[in-house]
Amino acid sequence: MNTFTERQKWALDKFDELASQLGSANQAAARIGMSGGTISGIKNGTYKADPTKQLDRLIAYFENKEAAAAAPSYDSSRYVKTSISDNVYDIIRNCHLKGGLAIACGDAGIGKTQAAKQYAKDYESSCIYITVNPCIKSPKSVLKLLGSRFNVSASSIDELWLGIVGKLSDGSIIIIDEAQHLGIRTIETLRSFSDYFDGKGQTLGICFIGNQETVGRLGGKQKAEFAQIRNRTKQTKIYSSKQIKRKDMELLFPQLIGKEMELDFMLKISHSQQAIRGAVNLFSHALDNEDISYKGLVGMAKYMEMAV
After folding, report:
1. SS3 of 123, please?
2. Are 41 and 50 in contact (CB under 8 A)?
3. Considering only CA atoms, which of 176, 169, 171 is closest in space to residue 190?
């Protein structure tokens, strides 16, 4: 058996805690980027090489985690009901209750995704939330992504569709984030789920979340096809970062309440192309730097090369 230093014992104990949280040593090792067999071998003395390098890696991982936990930080995972995110939430709710299609789109970083994720969390039993991207945008790839939520897998697109529709139920909603990546055939495929339930006198909501291109593509060669979808869309809202309100800054950054210059500056950041996401990143870095004064915020904005 190996003889470990106090710090090495500490790291191995931290590893065991992580393994307990995640459910297995292999999952804990994978998160750290190590092999479960390597750590097991080090612990029971069967690791053939010098374990010092691997133990140093383990120590560094948990030391970094402890340092990050101890540092002042902004909880970016916290859902804040800003004027825009609250409105997006309401659109999703209305789509959920009434079925059919809805679109909530606009500038990046203004709270659309946060609202969608919060809604999916609040109504997890009847809401499916997926995010598409340039690689997952075709009908088949999107159906595969949806199918993974229900453990549905098939080789053909028709089998995927039938498997998914068999798992969906009356009164459900599917939220598709980053929907600007979707083409007409994929949108038609998703709409067909809603049409299927409507034909049975039931409801299924399909809510598209994305940038302005989500609606802006209604022109061009595909105008007629998109117009048909638009006519079946019960609600469409387009948001701009300029709609962000000063009150939103107080909700997002309660540490700045009463500090007029600081709040005005954060609103200026939010109204720029950086939007709320940029303002949150700026505040988080300023907080890490232990200076959220007006001077500290401006200095951090310059350091981050924010154009304001």
Report:
1. coil
2. no
3. 176
Examine the domain organization and report whether 33 and 173 are in the same domain. Answer: no
Report the pLDDT value the prediction gives residue 86, as an integer from 0 to 100.
96
Instruction: Name 185's Cβ contacts closer than 8 Å, sequence gap at least 6.
Output: 138, 139
Query: What is the tens place of the pLDDT at every residue in 30-53?
Result: 999 999 999 999 998 898 888 999
Angle 255-261-265 (CA atoms, 0-180°, nearest 5)? 85
pLDDT at 219 > cutoff 80: no
**Strand ranges for the chain from DSSP E:** 100-106, 127-131, 172-177, 204-210, 233-239
User: What tens digit of pLDDT does each residue of 114-169 get?
Assistant: 999 999 999 999 999 999 999 999 999 999 999 999 999 898 999 999 999 999 99
Domain containing 179 equals 83-241
Q: Phi/psi zone of residue 280: left (φ > 0), alpha (ψ -120 to 50 degrees), beta?
A: alpha
Q: Which two tokens stand for residue 121?
A: 């969390």
Going by C-alpha positions, the residue among 33, 31, 37 that lies closest to residue 17 is: 31
Residue after which a domain boundary falls, among 190, 217, 241: 241
Distance CA 205, CA 173 (A): 4
- Asked if 256 and 41 count as a contact pair (C-beta separation under 8 A), the reply is no
- Structurally, how many domains does the chain consist of? 3
CA-based nearest residue to 250, from 80, 130, 129, 107: 80
Cβ contact 214:106 at 8 Å: no
In a shared domain, residues 227 and 249: no
Q: Is residue 160 one of the residues assigned to a domain? A: yes
Query: In terms of Cα–Cα distance, which of 140, 173, 142 is closest to 157?
Result: 140
Cα–chain center distance at 302:
27
Tokens standing for residue 154: 């098939």
